Amino acid sequence: MFNLLVSGWDIASTRGSLTMPLGRVFQFTDANIDAQYAPGGVLDEAALMKLPLVVTNESSSDPASPVMARIGKITKIKRGGRDYTIEYAIDTEIPPIPNSVLESLAGQLNFDINGRSFGEFETNHWAVKDVDLFQVLFTEGIGRTEPRIFKLPIGPIDANLVTVMMPFDSGFNGVFTALQGAVNAANMRCLRADNIWDHDVIIQDVVMLIGSARVVICDLTNKNPNVFYEAGIAHTIGKDVILIAQHDSDIPFDLRHIRYIKYLSNEQGLRELTEKVSMRLEALTSR
């Protein structure tokens, strides 16, 4: 999900505010999203401020004066008699993005640019989109810094691929088989890094698998440093990650706020692991 604010004024500073008439709030927004974030016609301000923000001016027809959108967050929402005052902060680590680039991604970002007399970038309004903004931007190579150690993948995500990150240890073969059962039940396919050899450098194969997957499963059992590194990459690039572990003590402090699946490596425990991962995959792929 993300907020889209289109204003009649240039976005010139890293912090600012704009007013939005009540009639322009949640224009170009699907009815179910409207009901979720404005139940009974009352804005859920706290929920909206948790979403990332795209804020921009109305597009210009002059190619010599391109309009640049910025990424940030809403910091305050205040209701007036006929409008809302919306305060925002810009993320200065993300460079400006031309409106024309966002318009070219209308299909991925659920923008309406052709269906009405005025498209989304031609009128001031506030919309909420049911799209993972950062996943789309990452896939398109927009606003990201390239690492020096490996190359991030460019291209579409394989919607049927689940990547498993676990120690290269035969003792985990039964765990992988259990995970394959969950993935197969979701009509998806399952791979781990030792299933492929496309690059001379192992980490590049790992990163390509993570980047192209719909979901990444990371087994943190025994606090394997390689798996922690891979989980960090997956989280950084915005992947849906399922964490699993055999012991609570396998989960470091910095990850204990994230839900994980605890399992036993015996026959019954692996059956339960299959069931729990299957349920989680269903939830992730249905949203």
Structure description:
With 287 residues, the protein is an alpha/beta fold. It is 29% helix and 26% strand. The chain has nine helices and twelve strands. It has helices at residues 31-37, 45-49, 99-104, 106-109, 133-139, 173-185, 202-212, 225-236, 267-285, and strands at residues 2-7, 15-21, 52-57, 68-79, 83-90, 97-98, 125-129, 158-165, 189-192, 213-219, 240-245, 260-262. Strands 1, 2, 3, 4, 5, 6 and 7 form a seven-stranded mixed sheet that branches. A five-stranded parallel sheet has the order 9-8-10-11-12, with helices on both faces. β4 and β5 form a beta hairpin.
Low-confidence stretches: none
Q: Compute the CA-based radius of gyration.
A: 22 Å
- Write down the secondary-structure element order: EEHHEEEEHHEHEHEHEHEEH
Number of domains: 2
The rough form would be described as elongated
Main beta sheet: strand number and arrangement?
7 strands, mixed
Mean pLDDT: 90
Q: Separation of termini?
A: 11 Å
**Strand-residue fraction?**
25-35%
Helical residue percent band: 25-40%
Overview features:
elongated, Rossmann fold, seven-stranded mixed beta sheet, alpha/beta, five-stranded parallel beta sheet, 9 helices, 287 residues, 29% helix
Question: Would you summarize the structure shown here?
Answer:
By secondary structure, the chain is an alpha/beta fold. Helices cover 29% and strands 26% of the residues. Strands 1, 2, 3, 4, 5, 6 and 7 form a seven-stranded mixed beta sheet that branches. A five-stranded parallel beta sheet has the order 9-8-10-11-12, sandwiched between helices.
